[in-house]
Structure formats: C-alpha cells, structure tokens
Amino acid sequence: MSVRQTIKRHYKIISLLRLRPMTYEEVQDMMADDPDAVEEDLFSSQRTFQRDIKDIETIHKIEIKCNRSTKKYAIIEDVEETHTQRLRENFDLLNAIRLSKSFGNQLIFEERKPLGTQHLAGLLHASQNYLAVEFEYYKFWDTSVSKRKVKPIALKEAQNRWYLIAEDTKDGIIKNFSLDRIMELEITKDRFAPIEYEAYEEFKDCFGIINGTDEEAVEVVLSFTPREGRYVESLPLHHSQELILKNKNEIQFKYFIRPTYDFKMEILSYGDQVKVIEPKSLRTQIKEELERSLANYN
Fold it and tell me: Which residues form the signal peptide (predicted)?
C-alpha cells in the first residue's frame, strides 16, 4: 500500500471517530459507504487498523483508545496542531473536488478572486533565507499601483485572505500586504539582517490583520441570541473566546482582544443578533455606529 493511501486512511479514521466512537467493523462499514475510500481501497485488516491507531497518535498527536466492554474506539485526546489540521482539511477538499468531476455539480464554490496563494512558497523561502522581495502592489481604495521592495518577516491568514508581514525598505515601517494584490513578485539576492519582530505576539490579541494601533487589549463580553450563539460557539471569533453564560435567552462569550476597526465591523455584521455587554466604551461606539447607519435611511 502506498504512503498516500496510508495518509488518506489515517485521515478517514480521524474524521469518522470525530463523529462518534466506533468499532473496527463500523469503521470499515462507514468506509464502504464512502466512494473515495472505496476507489482508493482504504479498507484494512484489524492488525493494520491497530497499527494505524498507534501511528495516528505519533504523527497527528491524536490519542485513540478502545473501550474493551463495547469494543468501540474513541478519541481520548486531540491536540492536533493548527497547520496539521489545515493540511488534513485541504486534503479532504482536494479529494472532494476530484470526486465532484465524476459526480456532477454537487460541489459549489463561491465566486471570488484568486487569493494569491501562488506566492506563498516563494515568500516563505524569502523570509526563511532573509532575502528581500520586489513586487507591484495594487491598492483597493484608489486602484493605484506602486513598486515595493520589502523584507519579508511572516505570512498570516485573516478572514479568508493571506497577508505578507514585511518591513518596507522605503521607510523602515512594518506593514501588511494582501497576497491577492501582489503582482510581478521577484525574490532578489539582497540579504538582510534578521528583524526583531515577533509576529505571533503582535497579532495574538488582534482580530483579523489590523495591528499597531493605539487600542490596548481589553476584556470584551458579547451576548448573542441562542441561534447565532450556537454558530459562534462552533466557530469562535477569536482564540481567546470563552463561554460564560448559556441559557434559552442568550449565549455570552468573553474575549481578551483589541477592539480594532475590523473587530467592530465583525460585531456590526451580526446585526440584531449580538449585543455588547462590556466594555462600556465599545458598547457606546457600536451604538453610535448603528445610529449613523440608520441615519442613512432617513
């Protein structure tokens, strides 16, 4: 069996056991109903299945144990790292795309511009090897084009876009550049000294890509309607999200976050399904923004 098949089998086992505990036979039966698993012949003997369980813990950091009384396997500890999870999700998506070509138009994508992900590998290489890059940058607000030379530091994903965090050689200021607006990328041979900038620390209390502003991180409490709150509970707005209240009338979450422009826009996007409880300053700002929005209809 190929390495690719082994990886796919691991991913299938993880996905199935995340649904519910299953016996070895139930896992095989579920795979029998999966066209991709059938086509790739991902079935295994019980001995191979046992080896897969051990390999999954070693490779993916997901511990799976068997309940001897029920003979069902269950995920006990799941500490899969973000990048590993994303790789697995992309692997699943690629398989779905491949299958959709055979099964019609059941897979429907949103129409959007390319994300500029073709630049990821080159920019990652440049940042790891301290090589300056040059490119043409297209601005959204005035459709102008500027020639940039920057020292790449890191790459960050925010709200379905990828951004380059880099020091602009023109003014020495660290800026964010959306990859989908970068054209004619060139990796130069000009080396630069490592830049003292901890990208994760700079953005950990931020929502989206805006940072470097005057806002300090504060404790924010948001109250959602039960319907919207269940959605936010399953897909947190920020890694600091903490559930503090849940009843039939509302669901409240607490955050430690900088109330930057993009976070305020995210709150406003929920309309009447959310209410700011704390801090009062943010509550006032959101209220004023809603009043200005209503004034547009007078």
Answer: none
Question: By 3-state DSSP, what share of the chain in percent is helix, strand and coil, each rounded to 5?
Answer: 40, 30, 30
CA distance 187 to 119: 10
Please tell me whether residues 189 and 259 are part of one structural domain. Answer: no
What is the total count of domains within the chain?
3
Same domain for 81 and 35: yes
Sequence-ordered list of residues with C-beta below 8 angstroms from that of 32, at least 6 positions apart, any chain = 38, 43
Task: Please tell me whether residues 284 and 224 are part of one structural domain.
Answer: yes
Q: What is the pLDDT of residue 159?
A: 80
- How far apart, in whole angstroms, are the C-alpha atoms of residue 152 and residue 130? 7
Q: In the structure, what pLDDT confidence band is assigned to residue 12 with cuts at 50, 70 and 90?
A: confident
Q: Is residue 209 a part of any domain in this protein?
A: no
DSSP E strand stretches across 43-130: 62-67, 72-78
Looking up tokens 């995920």, which residue turns up? 75
Q: What is the pLDDT of residue 284?
A: 96
Last residue of a domain, one of 48, 71, 100: 100
Which residue segment(s) compose the domain that 180 sits in? Answer: 117-195
- Buried b / exposed e over 107-126, threshold 16 CB at 10 Å, is eeeeeeeeebeebeeebeeb
Give the pair of three-digit tokens for residue 212.
């470097």
Instruction: Please classify residue 278 by burial: count the beta carbons closer than 10 Å to its beta carbon, then call 0-12 exposed, 13-18 middle and 19+ buried.
Output: middle
Segment 122-162, tens digit of pLDDT: 999 999 999 999 999 987 766 778 899 999 999 998 887 89
Kindly report the CATH number assigned to the domain that includes residue 70: 1.10.10
Q: What is the pTM of this model?
A: 0.68
